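User: Structure please.
Assistant: Input sequence and predicted structure:
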Amino acid sequence: MAPLGRWVYFATGVDAEAKQHFGFYYYPNGGNSPVQILKSRSDNFYSLNNANTMFYLGGVPSNYPDKMFVSSFCTMQNVRLFLDYIPKTDDEFLNIALMEPGSNNKS
């Protein structure tokens, strides 16, 4: 769960050809060390290179089977979609996260 009232960076990267999915979570933690987590998994994934591909972003779809998540309770301030770059390491994800000016907020 993300801390309330703080700038938090979530990112995901999918390499459909290599069958790899990477997820990253980061937030500054006051004067303490920042919290960052990188996880990966292997599976079959859809590619976004087809002209008919649809990408849903902005909350939980109304037909989502788990009714526990009826809203995301957050405000997206900055969304980037890279079609030709997949970050795979902590440093690569962190470089993208720190491009956002809000990431400098240490509160």
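The chain has a mean pLDDT of 76.
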